[in-house]
Structures are given as structure tokens and as C-alpha cells.
């Protein structure tokens, strides 16, 4: 059972403590995805103490999963920026990648953001019901920001007052930790996408679909010598992305595809 924590007003020292807390919680995540230069490329920036007289006035805050005392807002371009940094792309190169034509890039960004949430949640150690609503979070905690090297905000994080006070009384050795992915290459390799093979397409009227019967033959839009398309299925709002074409074959008792060519993605 946790000892009771005596409430007190937050001070500048708590803002400094929150920055240290974030630095410690994201250190492994930052090293996994961005290598030895991660600390210089993704920076922790102190903002201010939020209170009833000076509340958070930005977009809606969301509670980080598995954490009762950490709330955040992720900027719209954060996933794209982080994916570009992980792949060592320049800012202009990252902006030129279209989510619609390069679903793996978008999926990589989403994976990095998900891993960031896990890292931020690890700081808590499951102290229950520290804060009950996003409204409370707007006016009751410490605001810290994560920024990219170019100065662009990636996310804003509000640590609840109760969490800040509780962590000040808990030895660092009791802070929960996240399993390491060991290295940046392993982190990139750990991002999985599902590859599909597509023989072709056919446009049918609804009436024709309703009248289909066993033995019917449907003519597809691809010729036999054109082979099959391999594509990565988008997630949610992301479109499918063709990555290669190949020839259909057989390996033991399974279908297989021998690659003929890789698809060039539209960079517009």
C-alpha cells in the first residue's frame, strides 16, 4: 500500500523534475529509433505549470493508455516527422512522401508514436486514479513538450499533480521499465507490415454478383504474362500501396511469388 502523499503547490523544481522524468522514460525509446544522435534530434522542453488560473488551452488531451497520470496531445505531423528521422530523411524528403502511396512509411510513424506512448506510460508504476478527466488535466499538472531538432513540436505532455508528488517520494529503482529493442536496426525491423498478392480486378454489376454460381468464370483486368501485384494493405484511412510485381508459382505445398520488379512510389 502506498503511503499517503501530502499535497503542496507545484513549483519550478517540479517542472525540472518532470523534464528529468520524461528524459529517463524515453531514453531507451529515443536510442532504439534514432541511435546515438537521438538526444540531439528529439528534445525534452519544459513549458510551464498548468493550473486553474493558467490552464492548458490547446487541443483536447488524451490519457495515455495504461497510465492514469499522463495525458498528451500528439501533433498532426508527428508520426511523419518521426518516421523521416528514423530513416534519416531530410525534412523536405519526409514531407514529400505520400501516405496514400507509401503505407509502410505511415505505419512506421504510427509504430514509433505507439512506442513513445508505452515509454511515457512506464514512468507511472500504476498509481490508480490520480486524475479523472481531461478537464482536470488541463488545469492540474506540469506541461512538458517533446520537440524535433528543427524546433517543431511533436507532442505536449501533462503530468498530473498527483503523479509528480508521488514520484518525488518513490525511489527511482521502483520506476517501471520497458523492454529494450536493443538497437535502432532492431527497432526498424520490429515494425511489421502485411504483404498481399493480387491477381487482378474485375468490375461487376450488383445484379451479376447476385447471380454468380459455382463454375462461372470471371475475367480479370490483368493479362497472364503481367503476373501479380504485391501490396501493403493500408490501416484505417491509409490506401493500399503496391510495392512490387512478380510471377505466381509454388513452393512445396504453398503458393509463392517470384519478384520481377519493384514499384516506384509517387513522391507527390
Question: What keywords describe this structure?
Answer:
single chain; 9 helices; 23% strand; 268 residues; 2 domains; 4-stranded antiparallel β-sheet; Surface presentation of antigens (SPOA); Chemotaxis protein chec; alpha+beta
Brief rundown of the structure:
The protein has 268 residues and is α+β, with helices and mostly antiparallel strands.
Q: Which architecture of the largest domain would the CATH scheme give at its second level?
A: 3-Layer(aba) Sandwich
Main CATH class of the largest domain: Alpha Beta
Sheet of most strands? 5 strands, antiparallel
- Our estimate of the beta-strand percent is 15-25%
Structure overview:
- The protein is an alpha+beta fold.
- It has two domains: 12-171, Chemotaxis protein chec; 195-262, Surface presentation of antigens (SPOA) (Roll), CATH 2.30.330.10.
- The chain has nine helices and nine strands.
- It has helices at residues 12-34, 38-41, 78-86, 91-96, 103-121, 134-138, 161-167, 184-189, 206-210, and strands spanning 42-50, 62-63, 70-74, 141-148, 153-160, 195-198, 228-232, 241-251, 254-262.
- Strands 1-4-5-3-2 form a five-stranded antiparallel β-sheet. Strands 6-7-8-9 form a four-stranded antiparallel β-sheet, with no helix packed on it.
- A hairpin with an 8-residue loop joins β7 and β8 (241-251).
- α1 packs across α5 (103-121) and α3 crosses α5.
- It is elongated, with a radius of gyration of 24 Å.
- It starts with 11 loop residues before the first helix and ends in a 6-residue tail after the last strand.
- Mean pLDDT is 77; it is low at 126-131 and 170-177.
Amino acid at each position: 500500500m502506498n503511503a499517503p502523499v501530502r499535497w503542496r503547490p507545484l513549483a519550478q523544481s517540479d517542472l525540472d523534475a518532470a523534464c528529468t522524468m520524461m528524459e529517463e522514460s524515453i531514453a531507451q525509446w529515443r536510442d532504439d529509433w534514432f541511435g546515438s544522435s537521438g538526444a540531439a534530434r528529439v528534445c525534452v522542453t519544459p513549458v510551464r505549470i498548468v493550473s486553474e488560473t493558467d490552464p492548458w488551452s490547446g487541443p483536447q488531451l488524451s490519457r495515455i493508455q495504461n497510465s492514469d497520470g499522463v495525458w498528451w496531445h500528439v501533433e498532426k505531423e508527428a508520426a511523419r516527422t518521426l518516421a523521416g528521422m528514423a530513416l534519416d530523411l531530410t525534412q523536405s524528403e519526409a514531407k514529400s512522401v505520400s501516405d496514400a502511396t507509401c503505407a509502410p512509411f505511415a505505419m512506421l510513424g504510427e509504430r514509433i508514436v505507439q512506442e513513445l506512448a508505452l515509454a511515457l506510460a512506464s514512468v507511472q508504476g500504476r498509481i490508480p486514479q490520480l486524475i479523472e478527466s481531461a478537464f482536470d488535466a488541463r488545469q492540474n499538472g506540469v506541461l512538458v513538450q517533446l520537440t524535433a531538432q528543427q524546433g517543431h513540436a511533436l507532442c505536449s505532455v501533462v503530468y498530473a499533480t498527483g503523479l509528480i508528488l508521488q514520484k518525488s517520494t518513490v525511489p527511482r529503482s521502483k520506476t517501471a521499465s520497458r523492454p529494450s529493442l536493443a538497437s535502432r536496426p532492431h527497432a526498424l525491423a520490429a515494425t511489421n507490415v502485411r504483404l498481399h498478392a493480387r491477381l487482378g480486378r474485375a468490375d461487376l454489376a450488383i445484379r451479376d454478383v447476385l447471380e454468380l454460381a459455382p463454375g462461372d468464370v470471371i475475367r480479370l483486368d490483368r493479362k497472364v504474362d503481367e503476373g501479380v501485384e504485391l501490396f501493403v494493405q493500408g490501416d484505417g484511412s491509409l490506401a493500399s500501396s503496391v510495392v512490387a510485381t512478380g510471377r505466381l508459382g509454388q513452393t512445396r505445398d504453398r503458393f509463392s511469388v517470384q519478384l520481377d520488379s519493384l514499384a516506384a512510389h509517387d513522391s507527390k
